[in-house]
Amino acid sequence: MKISVVIPVYNEVESIGALIKEVEAALQGRMDYEVLCVDDGSTDGTGVLLKEIEKDCHGLRILTHGRRCGKSTAMCTGIAAADSCWVVTLDGDGQNDPADILPLLAELEAASAASAVHLVNGARRCRRDGWPKRIFSRVANRFLSLVLRQEMIDAGCGLKLIRRDAFLALPRFESMHRYLPALIRSGGGEVMWVDVGHRPREKGRSKYGIVDRLCEGIPDTLGVLWLRWRMRVSTVEKDESSL
Fold first, then answer.
1. Rounded-to-integer distance, Cα 139 and Cα 155, Å
2. Which of 17, 27, 137, 208 has the fewest beta carbons under 10 Å from its own?
């Protein structure tokens, strides 16, 4: 089984080199893989560093946005360019442990061959962020579970294993990465949750604030409700047209 590891990156010059080495250490010799780093318009030298690493790193490809487009767009760019049927996504800040890719793959392989698993989503066992972020994340996951009427254990976890074709069939919008479990289920796919670790950010700084996520989260959630309804309507119309 070959996998593609997609890492959206914005201004992570202090973290990305070590993260790529960890991915190599976790996967090399165990499976065929490639790593795609999507530089989302970095201004701190991240792009220059990635091009230097690319020269000596087997299986590493660098994709570049001329300006910052956002994490979801960077993810779309990487997954569209991937060569594998299954794609792993990782955050570029080093807080996701690449060693946790293996448990996600193990859960997928253990699933029934008849299952329609399209997404194996990490669920961080112990958040290593400050208490405001931890509380906000807990409230946000409960809010999403209630409003979307499905289990959203850790929607914000950047570590995911997803079928490439299932992802590319989804409607695209900024912040879609936080709603992938809901979108995948609306498209008829199954979602599995797997406990993974979480590490403190040691270098750089977060690109997201609580206020930003709150202001974006409510309209985004309403938009996802509408999209899910439209996806169901489209499925019914397609089924009826085939009769």
1. 11
2. 208
Whether the pLDDT of residue 27 is over 90: the answer is yes
In this prediction, residue 170 carries a pLDDT of 93
Question: Which domains are present in the chain?
Answer: 2-241 (3.90.550.10)
Tokens in use for 176?
Answer: 């879609």
Q: What is the CA radius of gyration of the chain?
A: 18
Q: Give the pLDDT confidence of 180-204 residue by residue, as tens digits.
A: 999 998 888 999 999 999 998 887 6
Strands 160-163 and 32-40: unpaired
Cβ 73 vs Cβ 40: under 8 Å = yes
pLDDT band at 211 (very low <50, low <70, confident <90, very high): low
Tell whether the model's pLDDT for residue 207 goes beyond 80: no
